[in-house]
Structures are given as C-alpha cells and as structure tokens.
Amino acid sequence: MPVTELFERPSPDGEPDLQLTTGGRLRHLLTLRGLSRMQLTELLDRAETYLSPYGQQPVRTDALKGRTVANLFFEPSTRTRASFDLAAKRLGADVLNLDVNTSSRKKGESILDMMYTLQAMQIDVFVIRDASAGVPAYIARHVDGYVSILNAGESDVSHPTQGLLDLLTIRQHKPDFHNLTVAIVGDIAHSRVARSAAQGLTTMGVGELRLISPRALAPEPSEMPSARILHRLDEGIRGADVVMALRIQRERIGNLDGIPGIDEYFANYGISHERMKLAAPDAIVMHPGPMNRGIEIESSLADSRRSVITKQVTNGVAIRMAILSTVAETLDG
Ligand code: CP
Q1: % of the chain surpassing 70 pLDDT
Q2: Whole-structure pTM value
Q3: Average per-residue pLDDT in the chain?
Q4: Lower CB count within 10 Å: N or C terminus of the chain?
Q5: Residue with CA at minimum distance from ligand 1 atom 4
Q6: Residue 244 CA to chain centroid, in angstroms?
Q7: Nearest in space to 328 (alpha carbons), one of 1, 26, 22
Q8: What is the mean pLDDT of residues 47-53?
Q9: CA of 78 to the centre of ligand 1 (A)
Q10: Centroid of ligand 1 to alpha carbon of 291 (angstroms)
Q11: Does 162 contact ligand 1 (Cβ within 6 A)?
Q12: b/e per residue, 68-93, with b = 16+ CB within 10 A?
C-alpha cells in the first residue's frame, strides 16, 4: 500500500519561524505573511538590479555558481516555471527540471522519499508547485539544514513570488503605496495570487485594497480583514489606481453552482475599456496569467497602453533571481 501523506493547511499566521533562520535571514520562501516591509523592500530593490532594458542582454551573475536548483511542478505552469529556470541559469546555477509526470511519485513514492532522494544528489534549492495546501511547509520541515524550499504556487493558499512581482510592478508605476487604491477583481476565494498580493500590499501599507467578486467567489471577510469586499464592479473599480483581473480557478471549484456563465461573467465582472473609464485616469491593468481573454478581461485592453501584463512577466524573472540569490547567501552562512 502506498503511504498516504497528510499535509496541514498553513495557519493564517503563516510560517515566519520556519522560513527565517534564528538570525532572521530568509532561508525558505513559503508565504509573504510574516515578512516585514523592510524584508519585502530589500527583495524588490534587489530584483531591480537584475533588470535590463528590453533589447539588451539579460543580467547574468555567478551568484549561484556551484549550486543546483530543482524545479518540481506538480501543477501546470508556463510563467513561474520558465522564469525560475531562467533566473537560476542567469545566476550560474545547474538546473534540474524534473518531469513529474514520469517521476517515481507516479509509482507510489512519497513526496518525502522523493525529496530525500533528490537531496542526496546535492540539490540546494527546491522550487515546488503543488495542488495540496501545506506541501511546501511540510517539505521545509523535513529537509536538511543546507537546503532551501521556495513555494512556486500552493493550492489556493499562497504564491509568494507572484505577490512579489506584483508589488514590484505596482511600485515601478505607483511608488507611494500609502496613497494607492488597488482593486483585485475575480475569483478571490480560490486565488493564491489574490492572497499573496493582499498580504504583500497590506505589509507595504496600501491605502485601500478592494476585493471584487460574485458572492460565490468571495473570500471569508475574517481572512483579509484589512480589505473591502465588494460585489459590484462599478463600485469596486471607481477611482482605483491599480486594477488586477483574475481568472476563475475552475480546477479548484468542486461545485460550479452560483458561478456565472462566460457572457454573464464578462458583463458583470469583465475588465473592459468601458469599465476602466471609472478608474483613475492613469490606472494600470494587471493580470497574473494565464489570461482568459473575453472572460475576465477585454482582449484589446490586455494589449493596451494601460496594461502592464508583460512587465509583470519580465519582473517575474528578476524577482526569482532576487529570491534565489538571497536564499543562496543564507545557505552560504
Ligand atoms: N501566474 C502564474 O503563476 O502563471 P503560471 O501558472 O503560468 O506559472
């Protein structure tokens, strides 16, 4: 009989003790919860140093020379996986992109046995995406002291590097978080992106955070006490400086009752040029991807001057370089 592994959903207080060393340095990145404004700012500042103008060669260093990074993605990914791969290579690391569909986990191997096996091959940093809540913390509790775990998307719980790249993108366009109104629109209830963005924005002191969704896709108010939970898009988008559209996470919704169909959804919650007339005149439009054009966002708006969606992607590589180089310094001691 294969061993059944039980993962515990992380507590709302996060894993501050687990992800930091006793000296307060970042060893694992599991969640943005518990990280200070100064720690977030240092990561954003470091990421800026890894950006180069479009058309020029990307920044390369040997900060991870001699280190090995393994990408373990048990859920589909384009952006996060490609950017961690590129980030590690641009820092000079060896990179293993394990094909989890042909790994021995398919034969019943536990995730811990898999981790111990890969750890024995002297892998330093594991980048993990999994559909089950609690997997990154579970692994972080069990690996050796010279290994780092980076959360690349955990169920609906957390996507900390996405949260960081969203903060960086917002800061580049709207540097004063305190005077900012941010509207996140869509399936908040099932979104790890919304949770990490809300945590990061709250720590950075955002002026107002609005979460707008149909009632069936709203979060528990107690979960994000500093945010305003709204159900009417016009009210939520009015005067907003930043509008972030999210897709409906159908893969995480057991019962689709109460979820609007595509046309109804776009009519009521789709971000369009028309809707953006209610936002601040210089408001930016964000989307973490993958996008469903014509459902949560009007296609031409996604390609318009207001859109910073490709900027988010570019910043994703820089943020992952910042995280990798930071944890490598911690592992160096
Ligand atoms: N935003 C994001 O996590 O995209 P991927 O699923 O393509 O990695």
Answers
A1: 95
A2: 0.95
A3: 93
A4: N
A5: 79
A6: 13
A7: 26
A8: 97
A9: 6
A10: 10
A11: yes
A12: bbbbbbbbebebbbbbbbbbbebbeb
| Ligand 1 proximity of 313 Cβ (cutoff 6 Å) | no
Who contacts 179 (Cβ-Cβ below 8 Å, separation ≥6)?
A: 207
CA gap 312, 168 in Å, rounded:
8
Assess whether pLDDT exceeds 70 at residue 47.
yes
Which one-letter amino acid corresponds to residue 233? Answer: L
Provide the 3-class DSSP secondary structure of residue 308.
Answer: coil
Give residue-wise pLDDT tens across range 250-267: 776 666 667 778 888 999
Atom 6 in ligand 1: which residue has the minimum CA distance? 77
Count of helix runs (H) and strand runs (E) in the chain:
12, 9
DSSP labels, 18-86: HHB-TTS-B--B--STT--HHHHHHHHHHHHTT---TTSPPP---TTTT-EEEEEESS--SHHHHHHHH
Extract the tokens encoding 176.
Answer: 């004063």
Type of residue found at 14: G
Within 10 A of 266 (CB to CB), how many other CB atoms are there? 18
Dump pLDDT digits (tens) for 13-36: 656 689 999 999 999 999 999 999
Give the residue with greater pLDDT, 185 vs 224.
185
